[in-house]
């Protein structure tokens, strides 16, 4: 499992030490914003994450209290992942990343209408994602 090495007590440094690879935030994005909750769904997300990297990041996120897993009732050999309260607290950061990337990436997949709505009413956009996780 990827070990988190803390370089300093700076909050930005801590955050980057924790989320310093692209896969961690993409997994959180998939749970928080795209409703994915199974290992296979994360693999099929489109960015091409390797199975060993996915397994590693899921374990790390669970160990750090960002996500939780439980046995899926319909198929006991499958795990279902969801965000903890700590994980849900990252939704505003994800929305800000969408706003920033959607504004400055001319080839973005983010619908312009969504980006515009998120800019105009960030608080409501965040709340709608939080409500969808209940």
Kindly describe this structure:
The two termini are 30 Å apart. The chain has helices spanning 11-19, 22-32, 39-43, 51-63, 85-88, 91-104, 112-120, 122-132; strands at residues 67-71, 79-83. A two-stranded antiparallel ribbon has the order 1-2. Strand 1 and strand 2 form a beta hairpin. Helix 6 (91-104) crosses helix 7 (112-120). It has two domains: 1-84, Orthogonal Bundle (Arc Repressor Mutant, subunit A), CATH 1.10.10.10; 90-134, no CATH class. It is mostly helical and 134 residues long. It has eight helices and two strands, in the order ααααββαααα.
Ordered list of secondary-structure elements with their pairings:
Elements: H1 11-19, H2 22-32, H3 39-43, H4 51-63, E1 67-71, E2 79-83, H5 85-88, H6 91-104, H7 112-120, H8 122-132
Antiparallel strand pairs: 1-2
Helix pairs in contact: 6-7, 6-8, 7-8
Quick recap of the structure?
The chain is mainly alpha-helical and 134 residues long. The chain has 8 helices and 2 strands; from the N terminus they run H-H-H-H-E-E-H-H-H-H.
